[in-house]
TrEMBL record:
It comes from the Bacteria. The lineage of its organism: Bacteria, Bacillati, Actinomycetota, Actinomycetes, Kitasatosporales. This is Thiamine-binding protein domain-containing protein. InterPro entries: MTH1187/YkoF-like.
Length: 88
């Protein structure tokens, strides 16, 4: 199964990236994911279920430790395994 996670961390700071946002970016960029898109108002990452769920766990824990007061995320199933099951 393939998953896509979309997330934001708060509070926002338009002048400079807060520590929690930097940590979140570092977590997803270091994870073994197939696609990562980091932006100022939203972030997405995609990969296998185990890799995405492991990254989400680290993202939540480390971003909160770095000062995030709110983390919004959405996880979607974007496809199934490579065992001939096809895409959804």
């Amino acid at each position: 199964m393939r998953l896509r996670v979309e997330f934001t961390t708060e509070p926002f700071d338009l002048d400079e990236a807060p520590a929690h946002a930097v940590v979140a970016r570092e977590v997803v960029e270091a994870a073994e994911l197939d696609a990562v898109d980091v932006g100022p108002f939203g972030n997405t990452a995609e990969g296998g279920a185990d890799q995405v769920l492991t990254a989400v766990d680290a993202l939540l824990r480390r971003s909160l430790e770095a000062g995030a007061t709110r983390i919004s995320l959405q996880v979607n199933v974007v496809g199934v395994g490579a065992e001939g099951e096809g895409e959804r």
